[in-house]
Every structure is written in structure tokens, then in C-alpha cells.
Q: What sequence folds into this?
């Protein structure tokens, strides 16, 4: 049996579309579907009762974060296989069967992931990644990715494979299918992450268990929330992403690596702010607005690196 786990946080309409696509395309797979609500109380439970009465619904009393909510869903599940699926995803076909066939093809495969597409069906390059290091996180930029697309820093060379499954270092938590036994054996999602980072942590633990992570380009999934835009800035996400990387580096490489990451992230933010200010001063009005959003983002990261954004400390696990 396949257990599909979807975590909801104020995304009831996305959940509806996600489940509709699953039930439309994956009718031949023995399954159960579990939706975990992270205390958003957005009416998702009522919607499921009316439109998808067979779905198991778990209402959490507190927003415990993405990883812990998924763990709660897995604990309630009964399937041999676990499919962790974001609510803002839509399947384009019988993705479940495609992914299951690859996972079952070899005993050394620990987890499989799909080819993620933006809402306009363009490729989402984040569907394959390198595991985080202080270096690749500090240097990460769209420009460097375009100049050096095959660099191991980013781990996106596998995107050149359009048909054959290929091994990668990591896949995002947007779409992860693996054996229940594997998920439990490596320790599930680490409780120390509130949001972001727990997926990379899981990938590393699976690789340490001598199992492979496979990207399956034939399996295509639309991910509405994955498209990046320089016109939008979210302080909460921006800061929590950096906290997650810091947590990941400290857990797996020690406190010194985590401190170095924070230090060099601050230097990188300062340099980018200087460049953006210099370019923006000679840009058109429309471009200035775009640069202004980017400057706000990097100013927030610089402030965080210097010990600011104290509101985010409640999301730093003390476990």
C-alpha cells in the first residue's frame, strides 16, 4: 500500500486540487491518503469530509512545523511506501506508478523524486540539488548557476536527463517517495527543523545509509509554490531558510562550520547590497523597483547574520 502524506497550512484550495489530481490519475495504486493540518483551522477538515470522505484527517493543535507534521502523518499511516507530497502540487499523470516502479527496481534505491514544473510548465531547477555546504550556500545565485550550470556546487547537472532516472545528491521535500522502513530507519524528519532544511537532512541520512536518491524525469509534478520571483519578498521564509542551513551545518559538521556560514553569509549580503545599490542608481524606474525588493531581501539576511531578526529565535530548536 502507498500512504500519501500531505501537510496543510492555510492551503485548503491547493489541497483540493492536489488530491483531485491524485484520485484522477492514480486509480490503480493501492493507497491511503492522510492530510495533516498544522493548526491552521482553515476549513480543510470540512472540505475533506464533504469532497474526499475517505481521506484520513489529522488536526494538530499547534503548528509544529513541516517535518514534525509529516512525522505525525507517517505514524498514522499503514502503507509499505510513503509519499510525502506538498499541498501546492498537481500531478500530470500516474506519477505514483512511475515513481514506485523506479523505487522497486533496485534494492539500493532509498528514495525517488519527480521532475517539478512551475505553474506555467517551465522547469523548476530546484527539483534536484546538492547537499548544503557553507560554500554553495554563500555563493548561490542565479547568475553563477547560469554561468556554471554543471558545477557540483549546485548539483543540477542531472536536469539534462529528460528520460532516464539518474542518481542525485538531494531532492526537495516537495515530492519524496520512499519505503516506510527506510524513513523510520534513518530517524524520520529531524525535530530540530521547524521549516526548511529537514528535507536535505533526510537526504543526507539516506545517503549515509548507503542508499541512492534517484531523480525520475518521466514523473512530472506541477509545483505552484516553487517558482521564484524577484518581485516578491518574504522575510519569514528568507530568515528561516538561513536558520535551517545553520542548523543543518551545526548538526552534521559542527558549530564552527555553522558560525563560518553565518559570518560569510553576512559578507556576501553586504557585497550584494553594494552591487545592487550601484546598479540600481543607474537603472530605469521599473528596474529600480526590482532591485529594491532584492535589496530588502539581502538587508534582512545581513541583519540576521549580525544577530538581528530576534523574532526568529523562537523557531531555533532547543532540542
A:
Amino acid at each position: 500500500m502507498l500512504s500519501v502524506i500531505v501537510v496543510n497550512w492555510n492551503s485548503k484550495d491547493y489541497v483540493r486540487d492536489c488530491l483531485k489530481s491524485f484520485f484522477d490519475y492514480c486509480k490503480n495504486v493501492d493507497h491511503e491518503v492522510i492530510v495533516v493540518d498544522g493548526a491552521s483551522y482553515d476549513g480543510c477538515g470540512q472540505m475533506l469530509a464533504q469532497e474526499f470522505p475517505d481521506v484520513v484527517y489529522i488536526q494538530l493543535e499547534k503548528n509544529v512545523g513541516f517535518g514534525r507534521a509529516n512525522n505525525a502523518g507517517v505514524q498514522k499511516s499503514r502503507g509499505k511506501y510513503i509519499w510525502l507530497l506538498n499541498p501546492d502540487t498537481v500531478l500530470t499523470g500516474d506519477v505514483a506508478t512511475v515513481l514506485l516502479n523506479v523505487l522497486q527496481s533496485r534494492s539500493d534505491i532509498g528514495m525517488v523524486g519527480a521532475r517539478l514544473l512551475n505553474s506555467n510548465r517551465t522547469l523548476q531547477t530546484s527539483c534536484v540539488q546538492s547537499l548544503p555546504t557553507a560554500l554553495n550556500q554563500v555563493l548561490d545565485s542565479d547568475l553563477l548557476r547560469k554561468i556554471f550550470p554543471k558545477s557540483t556546487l549546485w548539483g543540477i547537472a542531472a536536469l539534462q536527463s529528460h528520460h532516464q532516472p539518474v542518481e542525485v545528491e538531494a531532492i526537495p521535500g516537495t515530492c519524496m517517495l520512499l519505503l516506510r522502513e527506510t524513513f523510520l530507519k534513518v530517524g524520520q524528519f529531524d525535530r530540530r527543523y521547524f521549516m526548511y532544511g529537514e528535507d536535505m537532512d533526510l537526504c543526507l541520512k539516506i545517503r549515509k545509509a548507503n542508499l541512492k536518491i534517484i531523480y525520475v524525469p518521466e514523473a512530472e509534478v506541477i509545483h505552484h509554490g516553487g517558482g521564484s520571483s524577484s518581485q516578491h519578498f518574504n522575510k519569514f521564509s528568507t530568515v528561516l531558510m538561513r536558520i535551517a542551513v545553520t542548523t543543518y551545518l551545526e548538526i552534521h559538521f559542527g558549530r564552527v562550520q555553522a558560525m563560518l556560514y553565518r559570518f560569510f553569509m553576512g559578507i556576501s549580503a553586504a557585497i550584494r547590497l553594494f552591487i545592487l545599490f550601484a546598479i540600481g542608481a543607474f537603472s530605469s524606474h521599473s528596474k529600480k523597483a526590482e532591485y529594491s525588493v532584492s535589496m530588502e531581501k539581502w538587508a534582512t539576511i545581513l541583519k540576521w547574520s549580525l544577530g538581528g531578526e530576534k523574532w526568529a529565535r523562537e523557531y531555533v530548536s532547543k532540542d
